Amino acid sequence: MAQYFEVHPENPQVRLLKQAVALLEKGGVLAVPTDSSYALVCHLDDKAAVDNLRRIRGVDDKHHLTLLCRDLSELASYARVDNAQYRLLKSATPGPYTFILEASKEVPRRVSHPSRKTIGLRVPEHTALQALLALHEGALLAATLIAPGETHPMNDASAIRDRFEKLIAGVIDAGACAQEPTTVIDLTDSEPQIIRLGRGDLTRLGL
């Protein structure tokens, strides 16, 4: 049964988040709040956990998973970024944007797109999630928490626990999220390509 961590949205209890990190280290999949919607997350380097996340989410290896990073310095470890791309990223982070970038060698092949060798990366603006990432001391692999057969992300932590309690290791409840997906921008071509228009405002990026 999934553990339930009810944390303060602005001052999350470190002891509870440490317990959640311990579940990640053991290969667990967690449901966590972000600045867009709830997401499923797991340890980047745990193949079994990644496979389990895909199975829970109901997606195959062609579905872009996203790396959640604390800041741009961490993001640069997982993607090849030129100066123009970096300026764009800096203008949009932290925030509800996902950027498709060329994956670096630091990214395990199994979690990048199988044919394009790309990865989605984002720096979320959410206090509890940022605290979790800091305690974890590294990026987390994530997918928007949309239940199989549904089209909209889930937003209520207790409803997530009820639906997925036998499939995931834990749920972090820091209150309701925006329930709107991130804006997705592909930066692998010469010009930025808008893949999905979501919560992130394009005017912030000058697009």
Write the layout of secondary structure elements.
Elements: E1 3-6, H1 14-25, E2 30-32, E3 39-43, H2 47-57, E4 66-68, H3 72-75, E5 79-80, H4 83-92, E6 97-103, E7 118-122, H5 127-136, E8 140-144, H6 157-164, E9 170-173, E10 183-186, E11 193-196
Parallel strand pairs: 1-9, 2-9, 4-7, 6-10
Antiparallel strand pairs: 2-3, 3-8, 4-8, 5-6, 6-7, 10-11
Helix pairs in contact: 1-5
How is this structure best described in words?
With 207 residues, the chain is of the alpha/beta class. Helix 1 crosses helix 5. The radius of gyration is 16 Å and the shape is globular. The relative contact order is 0.25. The model has no long low-confidence stretch (mean pLDDT 91).
From the structure above, extract its key features.
DHBP synthase; alpha/beta; globular; 207 residues; eleven-stranded mixed β-sheet
Ends: how far apart? 45 Å
Average pLDDT for all residues? 91
Proportion in helices: 25-40%
CATH evolutionary superfamily: DHBP synthase
**Protein structure class:** alpha/beta
Q: What is the number of E strands?
A: 11
Radius of gyration: 16 Å
**How many helical stretches?**
6
- Largest sheet: number of strands, sense, barrel closure: 11 strands, mixed
Shape: globular
| CATH topology grouping | DHBP synthase
Strand content: 15-25%
The CATH C-level name is Alpha Beta
| Quaternary assembly | single chain
Low-pLDDT parts are: none
Order of helices and strands: EHEEHEHEHEEHEHEEE
